[in-house]
Design goal:
25% helix, Cys-rich_flank_reg_C, signal, voltage-gated potassium channel activity, LRR_dom_sf
């Protein structure tokens, strides 16, 4: 059974391969030698179709020039379809986009810059960046992202700059969220809702130079000590926003700059009890228990004596 060829210019969800013109002609019955004029028109139409497919027309409300597609500030509620295949810089900033469909970037393997700031994104579909291996700059700031899952940047190993700032509902970053991003130099996590960040999320980033984490409600408990120790030893230039990074808790360090905490600040986290300590606590508990029993016994005797004395006094008066 023969399968009809896909229409020229259409994008398939599973890939970006287009039907070959030779395959299309081979499925047609041979009508005999064509008229020269008909042949010329056919060749012109075929060439136009191929050019249209190699570089799709610019989407409505967008401007396209020199592989830059600018769809910013157009009040878009969804991403524009059918971008030029050779797009390198895509700006969808300052719109009202709430979601990006799965596989949206599959065909744009030349993409270097993606700007999605100032939208209403809550999450991104898994595997969105599987085919954008040349993507270097990603801006997701000023959205409503609530978490960064483990597969968010899967296969996007060319990323150099990621901006996740000003996502007020961002409360969790998976320990493996940035796994494999060995070229990442700039990471902005400022002005979110982060109270904790795992050391595992950052220690796999050997090229990290700048880290912005100010403006988050950090809880500077014992669980934050490994991260702060690593930051002091490994990232010397991440203190650009050190004055903005403050502790919101616990109460004893509330308002303290995050980077002002030293090993002495976490000294209580390393206090451990020895066997002698446990024996002493057990002994004190035993003594307190005995003292409590003796005290109750003496109080009972005293109360009984008072009662008898009072009764004897009443009988003498009678």
């Amino acid at each position: 059974m023969n399968t009809a060829p896909a229409p020229v210019g259409s994008l398939q969800q599973g890939g970006c391969q287009l039907p070959k013109m030779g395959d299309t002609w081979s499925q047609l019955p041979w009508p005999g030698p064509p008229h020269p004029a008909v042949l010329l028109v056919s060749l012109l139409l075929a060439a136009g179709a191929m050019r249209s497919d190699a570089g799709a027309s610019c989407p409505v409300l967008c401007t396209c020039r020199n592989q830059v597609v600018d769809c910013s500030s157009q009040r878009l509620f969804s991403v524009p379809p059918d971008l030029p295949m050779d797009t390198r810089n895509l700006s969808l900033a300052h719109n009202r986009i709430t979601a990006v469909p799965p596989g949206y970037l599959t065909c744009y393997m030349e993409l270097r810059v993606l700007d999605l700031r100032n939208n209403s994104l809550v999450e991104l579909p898994p595997g969105l960046f599987l085919h954008t291996k040349r993507l270097a700059h990603l801006d997701l700031s000023y959205n409503n992202l609530s978490h960064v899952p483990a597969d968010m940047f899967q296969e996007a190993h060319g990323l150099v700059h990621i901006d996740l700032s000003h996502n007020p509902w961002l409360r969790r970053v998976h320990p493996q969220a940035f796994q494999g991003l060995v070229q990442l130099r700039d990471l902005d996590l400022s002005y979110g809702g982060l109270a904790f960040l795992s050391l595992e999320a950052l220690e796999g980033l050997p090229g990290l130079v700048t880290l912005q984490i100010g403006g988050n409600p950090w809880v500077c408990g014992c669980t934050m000590e490994p991260l702060l120790k690593w930051l002091r030893n490994r990232i010397q230039r991440c203190t650009a926003d050190s004055q903005l990074a403050e502790c919101r808790g616990p109460p004893e360090v509330e308002g303290a700059p995050l980077f002002s905490l030293t090993e002495e600040s976490f000294k209580a986290c390393h206090l451990t009890l020895t066997l002698d300590d446990y024996l002493f606590i057990a002994f004190v508990g035993f003594v307190v228990s005995i003292a409590s029993v003796v005290t109750n016994f003496l109080l009972g005797i005293t109360a009984n004596c008072c009662h008898r004395w009072s009764k004897a006094s009443e009988e003498e008066e009678i």
